[in-house]
């Protein structure tokens, strides 16, 4: 059969991991996947991800590939790898891809979600799954209005932390929004009906901590510390010091990755 390349779609809760990328002496998503895969194919293989999520960040649809000479049918890898994975990581889908396909090179769009519980008494059941601000009601209308200044192609240098240097800090945001998922006062089970705030952003790529800094800046707008128009000043200044706080990792989810058609 020869060499084959298998694409995996992966969901994980990142709370117990030091991010995607393999590191020595700490648990990571990549390392845990490679350990499980080794037990399936009885050979140490490298799994290449499409996005390097940070410590504590979750994924609903991470995509990754590995090459193998195993004759296991692609779809059978789902159950086989899951058998050896902890239950906070799940393979959702597996299929064969061309050998010349490179996930990082072929990424076209990424979509992230960020969840916030702004109740003054946060739910203990949402710990590590959303940002529990504990500061009372945020003005989501002002946050959404401010976010619209970030749509389009801009230099996002002011919305990045120091980290891996990039050749360019220009990125395109195709869609960005902030909304509340439920109305205050609704009755229900006390968990699924909580009026969480959902932040969504889709772009052609993101700088280091860019999404979390955008969320933190928008939250400061929701607290009334910034005007909705003030976010344009961060774009113009191109300095991290002009933006807001960096939102914690537990509210961030990599939702979807699209490859070039």
Report on the structure:
It is a single chain. With 261 residues, the protein is an alpha+beta fold. It has two domains: 4-101, Pseudouridine synthase I, catalytic domain, N-terminal subdomain (Alpha-Beta Plaits); 107-259, Pseudouridine synthase I, catalytic domain, C-terminal subdomain (Alpha-Beta Plaits), CATH 3.30.70.660. It has six helices and ten strands. Strands 1, 2, 3, 4, 5, 6, 7, 8, 9 and 10 form a ten-stranded mixed β-sheet that branches. β2 (48-49) and β3 (58-68) form a beta hairpin. The longest helix is centred in the first third of the chain and has 13 residues, at 29-41. The relative contact order is 0.19.
Descriptive keywords:
28% strand, 2 domains, 10 strands, Alpha-Beta Plaits, 261 residues, 20% helix, globular, alpha+beta, 6 helices, 10-stranded mixed sheet
């Amino acid at each position: 059969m020869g060499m084959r390349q298998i694409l995996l779609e992966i969901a994980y809760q990142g709370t117990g991991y030091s991010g995607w990328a393999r590191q020595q002496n700490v648990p990571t998503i990549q390392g845990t996947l490679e350990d499980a895969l080794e037990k399936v194919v009885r050979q140490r293989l490298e799994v290449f991800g499409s996005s390097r999520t940070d410590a504590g960040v979750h994924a609903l649809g991470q995509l990754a590939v590995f090459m193998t000479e195993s004759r296991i049918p692609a779809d059978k890898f789902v159950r086989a790898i899951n058998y050896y994975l902890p239950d906070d990581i799940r393979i959702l889908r597996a299929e064969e891809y061309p050998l010349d396909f490179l996930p990082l090179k072929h990424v076209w769009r990424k979509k992230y979600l960020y969840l916030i519980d702004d109740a003054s008494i946060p739910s203990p059941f949402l710990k590590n799954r959303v940002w529990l601000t504990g500061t009372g009601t945020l003005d989501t209308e002002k946050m959404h209005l401010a976010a619209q200044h970030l749509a389009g192609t801009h230099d996002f240098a002011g919305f990045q932390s120091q980290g891996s240097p990039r050749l360019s800090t220009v990125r395109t945001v195709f869609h960005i929004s902030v909304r509340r998922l439920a109305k205050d006062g609704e009755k229900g089970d006390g968990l699924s009906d909580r009026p969480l705030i959902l932040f969504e952003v889709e772009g052609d790529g993101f700088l280091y901590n860019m999404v979390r800094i955008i969320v933190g800046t928008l939250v400061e707008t929701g607290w009334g510390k910034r005007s909705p128009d003030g976010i344009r000043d961060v774009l113009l200044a191109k300095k991290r010091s002009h933006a807001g706080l960096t939102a914690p990792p537990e509210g961030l989810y990599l939702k979807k990755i699209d490859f070039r058609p």
